[in-house]
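Handout, tutorial session.
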Amino acid sequence: VVEGKVEDCIFEGERVVYEIRVQALGGVVMRVFDHDPESHLQFAPGDDVRLGWNARDMHIFQK
């Protein structure tokens, strides 16, 4: 689990891509793909978040 701040939210069809800056990783921006946004909380730029992931439902990439 890592903590970060939402930089941007990008809506791509039926999924949402969150760009999240993670200070503990040197300020890197990670992209989190939410393929089922209707079933999850939604976040806005500036929100502080904690990230955990499961390979079945989210993929995390370094930008």
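The second record follows below. Compare its token runs with those of the first.
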Amino acid sequence: MSITPDQIRYFITACHYMNFTRAAEELHLSQPGLSKAIRELEAHCRTPLWERRHNALILTPAGQVFLEQARKFQKQYETLEETARSLDSGETLLRIGLVPMCGNTLFPGLHRAFLDAFPRMRIQTTEAT
């Protein structure tokens, strides 16, 4: 048995809500189905990721570490999927990080000129300081 991308997504969603019922609703799953997937994930990890108390879920220390790594995995998995789609379409993705001032003033003109020169290129920008 191996960990699946769906299990990672389920775990991250459950962590977001800290409630299996709400997470199951968000994921369009039954609550028992989500609970089973999480139990299988914990069995694979051979450690509890959650401490279950009455009506509360609390991440164990192992669960906190797993969540951090799961988020990194999910980002990489999404990048892999995007890459596969772009290869299939003949499109190329270029990711650019911008500081806010540059993104609002300088970049829009460059962006349009670049896309005119390279129409099969898709640009994804992220603004951060």
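Points raised in discussion: The longest strand covers residues 92-98.
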